Amino acid sequence: MTTDETVRQLGDLVYLNPLKYTGKNTDGWETAEEYLSGEVCDKLDFARILADENPTLFQRNVKALEKVQPTRLCINEISFKIGSPWIPSEIYGKFLVAKLHLCKPPEMTYFKATDRWKIPMRTWEQVGTDMRETYGTSQMSATEIFGNSLNSNRVRVNDSVDDPSSPGKKKQVLNRKETILARSRQDKLEREFVDFCKSDGKIAVEFEKIYNEQFNRFRARKFSGDYIEVPGMSAAVSLRPHQKDVIARIMGGKCTLMAHEVGAGKTAAAAAAGVYLKRTGAANKPLYVVPKPIVGQWAREFVTFFPNAKVLVAKEKDFEVKNRRKFLSKCALGDFDAVIISDSQFEKIPLSAERQTAHYRKKIDEAVEA
Q1: Distance of CA 96 to the CA centre of its chain
Q2: How far apart are CA 282 and CA 279, in angstroms?
Q3: d(Cα 208, Cα 87) in Å, to the nearest integer?
Q4: Helix, strand or coil for residue 237?
Q5: How many C-beta atoms surround the C-beta of residue 47 within 10 A?
Q6: pTM over 0.85
Q7: Burial of 342 (0-12, 13-18, 19+ CB in 10 A)
Q8: What's the sign of the alpha-carbon dihedral 346, 351, 355, 360?
Q9: Which residues are within 8 A (CB) of 22 and not within 5 positions of it... i.e. 6 or more apart?
Q10: Of these four, 1, 14, 77, 131, which has the most CB atoms within 10 Å of its CB?
């Protein structure tokens, strides 16, 4: 059929993605399950812009995306705590001024690269009974406790005592009584912070705006494997709907966690997924890395599911130093439906120097920028 006829018959099963559209009617088409999922808020904003320019092509996108926008969450549906990095430091400052009666909000800065808050203690006004009696202890002030909560640390109070093994030196010993008291103060601060934010109308509105705009923008994709038929599978084995769905997910995504419970048929689904990827041209040579004790079991089950499959199974001697290069060459040059090795063997396959260099260069650049 022509492209126009194909698209007409598919109807709402496919959508033209504006980001992939090149002006040709054969480019940029996606299934509905792919297009109407993911960052649907960004997709809607872009579709509206394009629909103004070309309503014939993209107005249907706008209508479909409007129907799948995430439901806006209110303050009582949003989970947060002291230390949530998306909360502006000004909110923490308001809370501390209100509870500890500080003269001014303390300085605090969040560093995304290390996921840590930095709080110069010299900026905190150490005043009022609330600093020690209500929210702190005699050995740890409320501001110190709050700083620990910002960085998701449970407080710990230590005593400095003489170290018998090193005369003249001190060592830190946990003060259990003071630690229990300090942690009760920490729990009190954290409970009151949540109550403070929810009871202040302006803060609640700000939280809802920030959270929904930053995080509530995603719609999970649903995968259906109804169309999947895996050639070469034993007549004695048939895939169940959830197994076909996971194959569809593996086909549609770059990374998949098959979190099925025991007995759900993960091995069969994984084997079938590899064969399906190879037969459709989406993969060249599926590699299965499995725990060492079950390599043999995996190989037997794979052949049970696919009797005519060409499977290469790594033996213990194949990864001895003298045989390793030969085995890897066999993997690279052979036409296999599956290669099965243990996790310990997989770790012995080195990355190229070029890939290692690129990886570390990227990490260094990120650290320098941070």
Answers
A1: 32
A2: 8
A3: 11
A4: coil
A5: 27
A6: no
A7: buried
A8: positive
A9: 28
A10: 131
Amino acid letter, residue 73? L
CA distance 328 to 312: 11
CA-to-CA dists, residue 280 to 228, 230, 237, angstroms: 11, 10, 21
Please state, in angstroms and rounded to a whole number, the distance separating the CA atoms of residues 252 and 35.
12
What does the radius of gyration of the chain's CA atoms come to, in whole angstroms?
A: 29
Quote the DSSP letter at residue 320: S
- How far is residue 214's CA from residue 78's CA, in Å, rounded to a whole number? 12
CA distance 15 to 35: 7
Q: Is 160 helix (H, G, I), strand (E, B) or coil?
A: strand
Structure tokens at 353: 């120097």
| pLDDT tens for the chain, residues 1 to 370 | 998 899 999 999 999 999 888 888 888 999 998 999 999 999 999 999 999 999 988 999 999 999 999 999 999 999 999 999 899 999 999 998 898 888 888 888 888 888 888 877 654 545 555 677 788 888 888 888 999 999 999 999 998 888 888 888 888 898 999 999 999 999 999 999 999 999 999 999 999 999 999 999 999 988 889 889 998 999 888 999 999 999 999 988 778 999 989 889 999 999 999 999 999 999 999 999 999 999 999 999 999 999 999 999 999 999 998 999 899 999 999 999 999 999 999 998 888 899 999 999 999 998 898 8
Please name the residue that has the structure tokens 């502006």.
88
Structure tokens at 29: 């088409």
